[in-house]
Design a protein that fits this description.
By secondary structure, the chain is an alpha+beta fold. Helices cover 32% and strands 22% of the residues. It contains 18 helices and 17 strands. Strands 8, 9, 10, 12, 13 and 14 form a 6-stranded antiparallel β-sheet that branches. It has a 5-stranded parallel β-sheet with strand order 5-4-3-6-7, sandwiched between helices. Strand 16 and strand 17 form a beta hairpin. Helix 5 crosses helix 8 and helix 12 packs parallel to helix 14. The longest helix is centred in the middle third of the chain and has 31 residues.
């Protein structure tokens, strides 16, 4: 990714990649420049930082099961009264409004997504308890109810499985087997319908994040220069540019997208955002364009020497600075940027690309690339699992299992061999860069993976694909099936291997949000097999 200037802003329940000198940006909220330098080759989360993240991360960093915050006041669903816990709120609703929410959830066998929709439906439509009792799930199944009325609503962070399990235990103590069987039969029909509609429900989450709040979203453009100094300094080191330029998949894809469509660039104005060593600027100039390159890193001074060395100073003009602080005399026909980070969104440089699109792209202009997709796949790699996870079970004869939780939380970046993949892949996000907003980089998505052979599921692997949709289209993938790139893949290890059988379907939900303080970083939550796991991409 090319060097760039400063850049612009996930969050809780189940479950934060921005301007960069040549690739993407990383690290907001830099307390110490030397500690803030991101390593594109190994962006592993720091559990130490996580522990010090105050109220932004605190309790919500419990990595496996979400826990109730008993100190936060929670507003009743049907009146303005507030209490100090979900359980107390449930009792309040039952006593004051004669509405048993737990029984209601069990009656319709609502999963986490349907529960979120129900809460948003109640908040938006304000149905009376007696009215709600008479309604059917179709009332709140509308995709629009994925968008919260209040992104900080504690009800949206509540684990519905905890609620339903408590109710089921209560039922089992009082109901006879015949009654239980009758209820199971009644629920089965509802479950089947839920399965049929689940895909559509989760697709809404792509477009309407459960924590979508345009006004409150921080982007990397909001980061103060002194906060990001360490980040940009990291791209002043030449080894990172050597690594990116040596990535033939990356560099040749950009070259082909520009030069194989050279007729479109001739005489046009191109903005190279995060230009780094100016390689994309020179490709564009070779295609006949007039180019403006922008980068916040000191590598820009070397880029000026490179441009002069190639006798291109008349057609390439370079500027050092933060994009959001720069003004240009004209708009651009094309904006070229290698902004992608690990797990696509790490570093958050996409914020600045979207800012440039909205302010500096001419009507009818195009971003390159103009589309990216994110994917998830399951893997079986017992050797790697032992190296990173089970290693702590026996360290020179001593147990260090207390380390495993924090180790697993750290999303790993590695090249996963194709033969280690044990499931089909599923698309968890599809971004049309010409239309999305920064809010779309926070999302919740269902995934469905079909097991291809008997074995052990040791973790999930995330990767992305990049598209240059032009008359001569260009595409590249960072998946395990493709030629390795410097992005590698992002690995989310499970705390324990999970036995799987061929043709078994693994269903789950993945949520991605930015860390509230370090908005270049990501919080990732994966739920499956009735458990929730939390990861950091830092």
């Amino acid at each position: 990714m090319e060097a760039y200037d400063d850049m612009p802003p996930l969050e809780d329940d189940d479950v934060e990649v921005v301007t960069s000198p040549e690739s993407s940006e990383t690290m907001d909220s830099v307390q110490n420049a030397s500690d803030a330098i991101p390593n594109r080759r190994d962006p592993v989360a720091s559990c130490e930082d996580d522990d010090n993240d105050d109220d932004d991360d605190g309790n919500e960093e419990d990595w496996e099961e979400m826990e109730e915050n008993t100190e936060e006041k929670i507003q009743c669903l049907f009146c303005k009264d507030e209490v100090l816990s979900i359980n107390k709120s449930l009792s309040h609703i039952k006593e004051k409004h004669d509405f048993d929410l737990a029984s209601f959830i069990c009656k319709f066998n609502l999963d986490q997504i349907a529960f979120i929709k129900l809460i948003n439906y109640i908040r938006k439509e304000n149905p009376a308890p007696k009215q709600l009792i008479q309604e059917k799930p179709e009332k709140w199944e509308c995709d629009s109810y994925m968008k919260p009325v209040d992104a900080n609503d504690s009800w949206l962070m509540f684990d519905v499985e905890e609620l339903t399990s408590q109710e089921e235990q209560s039922i089992s103590k009082t109901a006879d087997p015949t009654t239980l069987q009758a209820r199971c039969d009644e629920f089965q029909e509802i479950i089947e319908k839920q399965r049929e509609t689940m895909t559509r429900m989760l697709q809404a989450a792509h477009a309407n994040s459960t924590i979508d709040n345009e006004k409150s979203m921080r982007t990397v453009g909001d980061i103060r220069p002194e906060e990001d100094e360490g980040y940009f300094n990291s791209y002043a080191h030449f080894d990172i540019h050597h690594e990116m330029l040596s990535d033939r998949v990356r560099t040749e894809s950009y070259r082909d997208a520009i030069l194989k469509n050279a007729a479109l660039f001739k005489g046009k104005r191109v903005l190279d955002l995060g230009c780094g060593t100016s390689i994309l600027s020179m490709f564009s100039a070779k295609a006949g364009a007039n180019v403006t390159g922008v980068d916040m890193s000191d590598v820009i001074y070397k880029a000026m020497d490179i441009v002069k060395e190639n006798n291109l100073e008349d057609v390439i003009k370079l500027h050092k600075g933060k994009l959001e602080d720069l003004e240009f005399e004209h708009k651009f026909d094309y904006i070229v940027s290698e902004w992608m980070g690990y797990f696509l969104l790490f570093e958050g440089m996409l914020d600045s690309v979207l800012y440039a699109r909205d302010k500096h792209l001419a009507e009818g202009g195009l971003l390159l690339p103009n589309r990216c997709t994110m994917h998830l796949v399951g893997m079986e790699d017992e050797e790697a699992f032992h190296k990173y996870v089970s290693f702590w079970d026996d360290v020179y004869g001593f147990k260090m299992t207390c380390m495993k939780g924090d180790v697993v939380k750290e999303a790993n970046t590695d090249i996963i061999k194709e033969e280690k993949i044990i499931t089909s892949s599923d698309t968890i996000l599809d971004l049309d860069l010409m239309t999305i907003t920064p809010n779309d980089t926070e999302f919740t998505s269902e995934f469905s993976l079909t097991v291809q052979r008997d074995g052990l599921l040791t973790g999930f692997v995330g990767y992305f694909d990049t598209y240059f949709e032009m008359p001569t289209p260009v595409f590249f993938s960072t998946g395990p099936h493709a030629t390795p790139t410097h992005w590698k893949q992002t690995v989310f290890y499970l705390p324990e291997p999970h036995n799987v059988k061929k043709d078994e379907v693994i269903k789950g939900v993945i949520s991605v949000r930015r860390k509230r303080r370090e908005i270049r970083s990501l919080d990732v939550g994966i739920s499956f097999n009735n458990k929730k796991f939390k990861y950091l991409v830092e």
